[in-house]
Amino acid sequence: MRFLLPPVMGSVLELDTGAGTPLRTYITGDTLFRRDLERVVERCGPIDAMVVHLGGTRIAGMTVTMDDRQGVKLVHAIRPKVTTPIHFDDYKVFKSPREDFVARFTRDAAPGDLRLVDRGQTIPLTS
Predict the structure, then answer these.
(1) pTM for the predicted model, two decimal places
(2) Is residue 28 one of the residues assigned to a domain?
(3) Which of 6, 86, 96, 106 has the least CB density, counted as fewest CB within 10 Å?
(4) What is the 3-state secondary structure (H, E, C) of the chain?
């Protein structure tokens, strides 16, 4: 599948107002969980908020974006103060709805706060 799909990237955005420790937000992008994603914290420092792209996209029988299990695994690895799941119901190929992530987040005692946002809404990313 590597040859058929475009490369993906996540980003850490840092907001520094000069009034103390900057706010770090990790936006995962459409990716799969890999152990080397744990290096995000090593390279960037503690993450305040994580915007995690989900969906569990399956193409030709292969999962190509994180599902609920992988998403919660990433939350445990990154340990953000706030987690917001997005990008979970945009396409018919998505197989892992947000409700699955919410249930697993609670069941697996994921760290931090879970904040849900619907289209057109805003939420605070600070704890």
Answers:
(1) 0.90
(2) yes
(3) 6
(4) CCCCCCCCCCEEEEECCCCCCCEEEEECCCCCCCHHHHHHHHHHCCCCEEEEECECCEECCEECCCCHHHHHHHHHHHCCCEEEEECCCCCCCCCECHHHHHHHHHHCCCCCEECCCCCCCCCCCCC
Residue 18 maps to a domain: yes
Domain that holds residue 81: 11-113
79 versus 19: the higher-pLDDT residue is: 79
Give 111 or 31, the one with higher predicted confidence. Answer: 111
Q: Stretch 60-89: mean pLDDT, rounded?
A: 92
CATH number at residue 23: 3.60.15.10
